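Reply to dn_fold:

You asked what the input looked like. This is it:
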Amino acid sequence: MESQLPTADFLGVESLLAPHEQEKLQDVRDFLAKEVAPRATEWWDRAEFPHEILPKLAELGLSTPVAQGYSHLFSGLLIAELTRADTSIATFFMVHHDLFVEALHTFGSAEQKARLLQDATDLRITGAFALTEPQHGSDVAGRMDTTAVRDGDTWVVNGAKRWIGNGTFCDRLVLWAQEPATGAVRGFLLDATLPGVTRTPIRNKTALRTVQNADIALTGVRIPEADRLAGIGSFEDTRQLLLGSRILVGWQAVGQQLAAFDVARQYAVERHQFGRPVAGFQLIQDQLVTLLGNTVSSMAVMARISALQEQGAADMAQAAFAKSFTTGRMRESVALGCGILGGNGILTDHGMAKIFADAEAVYTYEGTYEINSLIVGRALTGISAFT
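and this is what came back:
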């Protein structure tokens, strides 16, 4: 019965993809169904990262897909499908490919690309993105405490970074620091094994448990000038990367809702109470329709954002709107999903508890819901509510 039911892509957004993109997306689904979905809950429960799947993930050949000629819509639906299978794996993929590798593409020198890009693309080396600090998250643009001072052919870096995804095991980090003498923001391809780099795992998380977040302490770290990203001279340079990643988090919110719908609908059809499937009760059907409506509206917003990206017209206010709108709908959707499962909604055995917990991270990172709402409010009124 379930195979005959419509998918959560109720309005057929995926049909807007080119035929070859639809085929590639199906290849991704097949990979995820075989290699990720059966074990994702086990990894999450144990808070362990599955390094063994990286060669197979690399074989998909989807690092920075837009740079390879795929559409922005395909890139977004790719992230949605990865998230649908496991939000943690999608987050790893985004941090490595859409921040670290993309930074190499955008700001790396010819020598840096020749030295690192192919290994990073093929996941022979892994990367992270070190911007957030212990005391500075949303306000890091104007209050970065990590410093970089030029000393001959090296830069001496001191400071700390927090919540760095992939930070416990990555080979390189795109590290952001401020030069005290000039106020300029510098970017570096930090070798994570250099003396003075200390990486401490962040424990006891209730979301994205498979992602290995770290506190990074930097004490007198000497980074060669050859590892400075010469294309970066101010925080404005980061916005090009953050615009794309913020939009992709909107697609993660779509993926979270796709996952919640999948689990909730299947459970409602199969679970019997009072002698019939709970899907036969009016309240359950209303909740499923609301969940579907949130998902479809989120997909529609993101599809339009993707079209703007194709035109080179997407801006930060639109990205902020996409992120805040979709994550707001997502939060309601995962709560509805938990409710449909009743007591089983709090068990990772049934999938929904993991979806529900991971949603809180998506709601918060790449700018909290509130911060993104204020960015949109500033665009609407011309008045900033930031202090």
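The chain has three domains: 2-121, 127-227, 236-381.
Hope that clears it up.
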